[in-house]
Amino acid sequence: xxxxxxxxxxxxxxxxxxxxxxxxxxxxxxxxxxxxxxxxxxxxxxxxxxxxxxxxxxxxxxxxxxxxxxxxxxxxxxxxxxxxxxxxxxxxxxxxxxxxxxxxxxxxxxxxxxxxxxxxxxxxxxxxxxxxxxxxxxxxxxxxxxxxxxxxxxxxxxxxxxxxxxxxxxxxxxxxxxxxxxxxxxxxxxxxxxxxxxxxxxxxxxxxxxxxxxxxxxxxxxxxxxxxxxxxxxxxxxxxxxxxxxxxxxxxxxxxxxxxxxxxxxxxxxxxxxxxxxxxxxxxxxxxxxxxxxxxxxxxxxxxxxxxxxxxxxxxx
Length: 317
Fold this sequence. Notes:
This protein is mainly beta. It has 4 helices and 15 strands.
C-alpha cells in the first residue's frame, strides 16, 4: 500500500444477490466495511491493535453511489484510501471497478474511535504513519464533498412504518447492532412491488445512537421525487471519467455523539498527503445525469431518541 491505496478484488456470490440478481445494498456495505478494516491496518490501527488498547472503530456515516449495480457472478476490483482526519473524524474513500477499469461504485465514509469501557469518543489520532490522498470520490462545483450528515426534510411528513426489536443476528462483536443491519432494515421498507421495478443508485446513512439487543426500534418513513445528480469527482487513472475535477480507518456500529461533521473546511491530513495528478476526461454515463428519481428517508428511533437516518435514492429501471 505504498501508493496510499489498498487494492483488492472479489466475486459477487449467490447469497449476496437479491431476487433480481443485483448485489444487495447491505452486502455492499459489508464489503466496504471490510475494506475499511483492512485499510486501517496500514496505519497501525487495525481491529486487533485497537482492541489491545481498549478501543474500537465506529462508523459515523457513509455515502456510496452505485454507478452500475454489481450482479451475481461479477468480478469487482476495489480500492480504498484514507482522505485524512478532521477533528475526531477519520475520512475514508472507496472505488469499485469492473475488470476493465470502468467505475461501478464510488463511496466515502467518516469514522470515529471510541473507548470500549466508557463509550466516549477518542479525539486524539490513533494513526501510526500511513499515506493520505487528496483524491475525492465526490465533489460539488469542484469542492470536495466529505461524508456529511443526512436528515429527512422537515416538510416531508414521515409516517410510522412498523418497528423491529434488535435480535441476535443484528448484533456484532461490540455488543450492539451492526451498521449494516440498519441498511438491511431500510431496504425492506419500500415494499416488494417497488423494489422489483426500481434500482437503488445512492445510499446515505448517519448513525447517532447505538442500539442494543432487545431494544425496539420504531421506523418513520417518507419519500419524495428527487433527481439523481451527475457524479462529480476528483479521481484519476480510471477508464471512465465522469465530471472529473482533478485532485489536489474502519469498524462497525454507532454511539451517541455530537461530532463536528468535518464539512466546514478542508480535511487536514495527519501524515503524507499525496496530490492527485491530471483529471480523467469527462465522459458521463448517460443514465447518471439528472435522472428523475425518488428518495426514501427512514428515521429509526428508540423511545424518542433518534438512532439513525437513511436516505435511499432509486430510479425506475
